[in-house]
Amino acid sequence: MKTAFILPLLAGGLALWAGCANVPTAGGFDTVEQQVNQRVRHRVVWRLDAAADARADAAIQALMQTNLTSRAAIQVALLNNRHLQATYEDLGVSQAALVQAGLLKNPVFDVAVRFPTSGGSTELELGVAQDFLAMLYLPLRKQVAAEEFASAQLRVTQAVLATAGDAQRVFYRLQADAQLRNMWEQVARSTDASLEAAKRLRAAGNITELALAQEQALHEEAKLDLQSAESRIANGRERLNALMGLWGRNLKWQITPRLPDVPTAAMPLDAVESQAIARNLELAARRHDVRAALKRLGINRAEALLPELEAGAETERDGGHWSVGPAVAFPLLLFDQGQARVATAAARLRRHQQTYHAQAVDLRAATRAASRRLLDARRRAVHYRDVVLPLHDRIVQRTMLQYNAMQKGVFAVLLAKRQAIAAGQAYVESQHDYW
Length: 435
Prior knowledge:
11 helices; alpha+beta
């Protein structure tokens, strides 16, 4: 019988019995919910049953009763994106690994019967094999699994935030395209009126054929730009539909077709780099990876010295008499002394450490670059709004006055209109860049 001695055997049996716990279905998701709420103030739901589906669907329908805002679009995506729901299953896998790490290996019961060929009584041997060292390494293995579980929670949270970011980016692009479409609709109506007036002037002989052709070209270009804006809107809606997981009767949502105004005051960015390092979820997950790799290296070093140890007692019946005695079994480290496993674990630890430092450097650089882009986009949008657009409005008005007074030709008017249109388009793009 290859089990532990009496007290260790009982302790192992109790530990095994206590470890036979069920795996929590949604284990660790509460941490994800807290992390998401702290960062973006949105709900997340793991659709594990019909009740969760009903709650999520009811919340989605309530959000879609009015024009979608960016926050509403993000919330719908977080409730309904099926890629995100699939990612939540990583928590289930990691939770199961954590439970598994806390369980002892099942004992193996063996029976041997020997029939004497020359007569006599049958011999019977009974044994139960249990890895004794598994109980010693159990706390370390649980610590490794706990670090990996914490890392999985952070990476799932990062996936939630990435989905929220994608939904927000696509929503703002869609709003910008809708704003541009409205602008091109106004331009098309204006150029159509100008073309009709030019046709009458040409019929009266007051302008040249070239001037009429230039008016017509401006109008046709405006119609093409309007068609392009309509196409971009259709494509943007489908991208947002995919992120929000919508189809069928839920496709008739609307948005406010204008980006929010850019605030005049700049966002404070003094501590943004340190905040990025402290709050970045990928770096936090990497820290858990480093700690897990360090603990796994400790396990491999211990197992290299003594990978297995089976201790206990064996019982045997021979000729109607039972005999019981102690038994110990352990491998002879003649060939595999664990050097490769230790070297592999050490290399993985160093890789996690170097990756962590590399990602921290990359994050700092990306944060500084993003801060500069944000400041530049705000300055550009404010300058277009407060300086460039009013200036082009005055240029068009003054040019029209001079044209009516026959001091400017039609080419000057067309040039002023084209420049005003380009400035309006650039302003919308600068708004989009900021948001």
